[in-house]
């Protein structure tokens, strides 16, 4: 590229920044996350949104593991309570307890 | 905002909730709604609880003080559940509360979480029966052999008791998460909408629901948009609208066909393709849609603006108001901290002349349509002296910051006002910060 062409490209970029703060922000984001896809709201993103709340406790895995171990103790709960998927077989103690809010709302005081 | 006698000024009236900074997740307010007369104000929270406030009768001795809202009833509407078949945790958070118009002495409201809608009856009891023949006053049954004479039980006055009871439970009709509930003007039916479907219910029938909109594609790989909000027209019982994550609003007429997949009108503002960026679709997603009281307009809220649409004109909004345009140059960090996905609601005042919506830093904005004026106010404990007039706030976007201004970088993005409500007749507003409910009213001169 000749010097003049480079200069006009730079000018165009500066123009873009002035005209569109959004595009500047986009450039910033892409610089930080080079693997970011072009479409932020694709089918995968939407499907994740639809599946909010999914927790994985497989009672089949749990019972199989219980049967295998038989009289031995079940694997003890790890300190990291969030790791109840993958290799670790969750036990009822692992699952976070969803208690109801027995306490009255503080707005009603 | 000009009212009778000059500019309207907003004053602090009340604040409800705890002062401490450590907010329990259950205390996060998730919905606020006045009933049709404005006498009752309901809030729902993340803990599944509903609190209803009642406006006390005006104190005639002190004309400058408007009536106050005090706790009327509170109950646990929803509880957390676990769907074992789908391994899905169902939050108890109340997504929406909608009041039914009053038909008799009791009040009714619909409250919903992600999966289940409930119809609650709130009734007053101020008398109790006394003098039963077969029971003692404490409830124990009498020995029949000891009864020698008959008495007529009488109703005696007692301290007012407000009871809330679930009258209907509308369950198992939504695969996805319910975002909206809207009572029809026919006062017999209502709609509930989730990410992909809108269902029609009859208030008396809980075991059946009609699907009227279904945008689920046959192949989920082709999913491009979801339903974000839905509402019935205030007067036309056959008309409803639903908004999408792509910034479009579809109006459907239930007379046209049983399944309203084909819209009657499509409201969409054309976009300049050269302005398109990575963020365009995200910030165009509509987080709330509300018909005006007169039924001629509808308002939509997207991430940065509020738009007013004339129902007779589909190709562009008639008015656009910038809520916090200065955030456009912060979209990168707002995407990183997920704030770009915050769902702000919006509301009309009683005569559709002013619209209101929330922002960050506990700011909220009002746009006076007629006078082309807008104002930014703050809900804060620092401005909470009785009847203290709220000072307008201003965000400095660059360059020199004036004395009372706040710079964009100093805004607290954890202090978001997502839910606001306007009294249907008077200039009284309810503004929810994370865990506090503020009530403001205009200064009565």
Automatic annotation (TrEMBL), chain A:
One of its GO terms (molecular function) is protein phosphatase inhibitor activity. Pfam families: Endosulfine. One of its GO terms (biological process) is cell division. Residues 1-29 have a biased composition (Basic and acidic residues). It comes from Austrofundulus limnaeus (Annual killifish). Protein phosphatase inhibitor that specifically inhibits protein phosphatase 2A (PP2A) during mitosis. Belongs to the endosulfine family. GO terms for cellular component: cytoplasm. This is cAMP-regulated phosphoprotein 19-A.
From TrEMBL, chain B:
Pfam families: WD40. PROSITE patterns: PR55_1. GO terms for cellular component: protein phosphatase type 2A complex. Keywords: Repeat, WD repeat. InterPro entries: PP2A_PR55, PP2A_PR55_CS, WD40/YVTN_repeat-like_dom_sf, WD40_repeat_dom_sf, WD40_rpt. Gene3D superfamilies: YVTN repeat-like/Quinoprotein amine dehydrogenase. One of its GO terms (molecular function) is protein phosphatase regulator activity. PP2A consists of a common heterodimeric core enzyme, composed of a 36 kDa catalytic subunit (subunit C) and a 65 kDa constant regulatory subunit (PR65 or subunit A), that associates with a variety of regulatory subunits. Belongs to the phosphatase 2A regulatory subunit B family. This is Serine/threonine-protein phosphatase 2A 55 kDa regulatory subunit B.
């Amino acid at each position: 590229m000749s010097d003049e062409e480079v200069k006009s490209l730079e000018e165009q970029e500066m123009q873009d920044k002035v005209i569109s703060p959004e595009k500047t922000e986009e450039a910033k984001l892409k610089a930080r996350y080079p693997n970011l896809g072009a479409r932020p709201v694709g089918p995968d993103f939407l499907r994740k949104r639809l599946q909010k709340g999914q927790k994985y406790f497989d009672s089949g895995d749990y019972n199989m593991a219980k049967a295998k171990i038989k009289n031995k103790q079940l694997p003890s709960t790890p300190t990291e309570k969030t790791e109840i998927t993958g290799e670790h077989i969750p036990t009822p103690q692992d699952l976070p307890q969803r208690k109801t809010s027995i306490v009255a709302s503080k707005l009603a005081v | 905002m000009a009212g009778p006698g000059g500019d309207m000024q907003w004053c602090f009236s009340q604040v409800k909730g705890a002062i401490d900074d450590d907010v329990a997740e259950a205390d996060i307010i998730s919905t606020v709604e006045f009933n049709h007369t404005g006498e009752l104000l309901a809030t729902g929270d993340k803990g599944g609880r509903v609190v209803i406030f009642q406006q006390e009768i005006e104190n005639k001795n002190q004309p400058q003080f408007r009536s106050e809202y005090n706790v009327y009833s509170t109950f646990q509407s929803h509880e957390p559940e676990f769907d074992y078949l789908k391994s899905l945790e169902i939050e108890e958070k109340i997504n929406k509360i909608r009041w039914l118009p009053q038909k008799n002495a009791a009040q009714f409201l619909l409250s919903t979480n992600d999966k289940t809608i409930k119809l609650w009856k709130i009734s007053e009891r101020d008398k109790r029966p006394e003098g039963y023949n077969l029971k003692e006053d404490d409830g124990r049954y009498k020995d029949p052999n000891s009864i020698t004479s008959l008495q007529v039980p009488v109703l005696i006055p007692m301290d007012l008791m407000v009871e809330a009871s679930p009258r209907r439970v509308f369950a198992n009709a939504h695969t996805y998460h319910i975002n909206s509930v809207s009572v029809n003007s026919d006062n017999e039916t209502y709609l509930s909408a989730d990410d992909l479907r809108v269902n029609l219910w009859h208030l008396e029938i809980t075991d059946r629901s009609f699907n009227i909109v279904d945008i689920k594609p046959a192949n989920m790989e082709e999913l491009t948009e979801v339903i974000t909000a839905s509402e019935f027209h205030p007067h036309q019982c056959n008309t409803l609208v639903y908004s999408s994550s792509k910034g479009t609003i579809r109006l459907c007429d239930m007379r046209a066909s049983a399944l309203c997949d084909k819209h009657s009108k499509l409201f969409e503002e054309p976009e300049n393709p050269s302005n398109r960026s990575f963020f365009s679709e995200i910030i165009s997603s509509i987080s709330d849609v509300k018909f005006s009281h007169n039924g001629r307009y509808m308002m939509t809220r997207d991430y940065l603006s509020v738009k007013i649409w004339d129902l007779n004109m589909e190709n562009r909004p008639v008015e656009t108001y910038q809520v916090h345009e200065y955030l456009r140059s912060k979209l990168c960090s707002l995407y990183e901290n997920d704030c770009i996905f915050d769902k702000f609601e919006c509301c009309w005042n009683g005569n559709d002349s002013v619209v209101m919506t929330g922002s960050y830093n506990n700011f909220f904005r009002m746009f006076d349509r007629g006078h082309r004026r807008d104002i930014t106010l703050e809900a804060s404990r620092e401005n909470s002296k009785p009847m203290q007039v709220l000072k307008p706030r201003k965000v400095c976007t660059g360059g020199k910051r004036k004395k009372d201004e706040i710079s964009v970088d100093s805004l607290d993005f954890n202090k978001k006002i997502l839910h606001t409500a306007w009294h249907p007749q008077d200039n009284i507003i309810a503004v929810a910060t994370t865990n506090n409910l503020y009530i403001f009213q205009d200064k009565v001169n």
